[in-house]
Amino acid sequence: MPVDASARARHGRGMTTILVTGSSRGIGAAIATALGELPGVRVLGHGTRSGIAEDLSQPDAPARLWAAALQQAGGAIDILVNNAGIFEASPLDADDWSESWARTMQVNLTASAELCRLAVLHWQERGVGGRIVNIASRAAYRGDSPSHWHYAASKGGMVAMTKTIARGYAAQGILAFAVCPGFTMTGMADDYLASRGGDKLLADIPLGRVASPEEVAAAVRFLCTDAPPSMTGAVLDINGASYVR
Ligand SMILES: NC(=O)c1ccc[n+]([C@@H]2O[C@H](COP(=O)([O-])OP(=O)(O)OC[C@H]3O[C@@H](n4cnc5c(N)ncnc54)[C@H](OP(=O)(O)O)[C@@H]3O)[C@@H](O)[C@H]2O)c1
Fold first, then answer.
1. Closest Cα to residue 184, out of 227, 233, 220, 222?
2. From the CB of 45, is ligand 1 less than 6 Å away?
3. For ligand 1, what atom is nearest to the CA of residue 56?
4. Cβ of 48: how many Cβ atoms within 10 Å?
5. Ligand 1 contacts CB of residue 184 (under 6 A)
6. Strands 79-82 and 16-20
7. Which of 58, 87, 195 should be mutated for ligand 1, with most atoms under 8 A from CB?
8. Catalytic residue ranges
9. Which pLDDT belongs to residue 1?
10. How far, in Å, is the centroid of ligand 1 from the Cα of 38?
């Protein structure tokens, strides 16, 4: 039977190693903190200049990141959290629209796909199960602003990829989940609100406020640990009911 990494974490049999991309700040930092508080868990962090430093806009970066993480982990990674992502405006009339499209796809989707691929191969080689948690977005379902076609498309792709992995490898104990945050307050509140359209965005959220990184991290922690295997393929919304599917 495949070994369930989360079960090892819960029952204290050895360490569970979790790679979290984009853990230098924002939601990723909250995820790393929440997971790092669990007994028997070792978190491997990543950023462009911190943790295992790799710029995921570079096509060969995911393979380097995975190899370095495996080395730090002593040869076994149990859970992968793909959180690193960019949200860069790209108006339709921008000269570099195509380059922006490619960059967002590379960082948000392709790099995550490469890491998922390496994780699945790693678990298959070891003959064990594992868990993947992909941080997508409400935009995957709702769409985004006219300057963010690429962002919404990358996150829609992430949800579809997650479901595909869940269906393909569940029998091997390899589980995959996605989380779709809505607006989530990272960094300074004023800057954050301004970058997302100001006070008007709050009027669209029945809860009356944006999510906190800690709320997203709580969902990720659940998916990494206690979420039952039958949940594989599930997508959790964290958006204050601003988009109810
Ligand atoms: N905040 C929101 O409202 C919201 C809503 C829905 C979904 N999300 C998703 O949640 C995830 C985290 O978002 P966030 O708001 O916490 O973002 P953030 O505060 O901007 O942090 C982004 C993280 O990704 C890393 N990163 C960015 N570009 C990278 C690159 N080229 N290569 C490697 N790492 C890179 C950053 O590393 P450095 O520190 O080194 O730059 C940082 O750790 C993203 O996938 C985002 O799409 C966020």
1. 220
2. no
3. 32
4. 15
5. yes
6. parallel
7. 87
8. 151
9. 30
10. 23
| Ligand 1 site, residue 22, Cβ cutoff 6 A | yes
Cα 238 to Cα 228: distance, rounded to the nearest angstrom = 19
Residues of the chain where predicted confidence (pLDDT) is lower than 50: 1-3, 5, 7, 9-12
Whole-angstrom distance, CA of residue 194 vs CA of residue 185? 11
Residue 41 φ/ψ, nearest 5 degrees: -115, 135
pLDDT of residue 187: 74
Q: Which atom of ligand 1 is nearest to the CA of 181?
A: 6
**What distance in angstroms lies between residue 86's CA and the mean position of ligand 1's atoms?**
5
Angular region, 155: left φ>0, alpha ψ -120 to 50, beta rest: alpha
pLDDT of amino acid 189: 62
pLDDT value for 188: 62
Residues 6+ apart with CB under 8 A from 84: 21, 22, 28, 46, 47, 56, 107, 111, 112
Is ligand 1 within 6 A of the CB of residue 87?
yes
Counted residue by residue, the chain has a size of 245
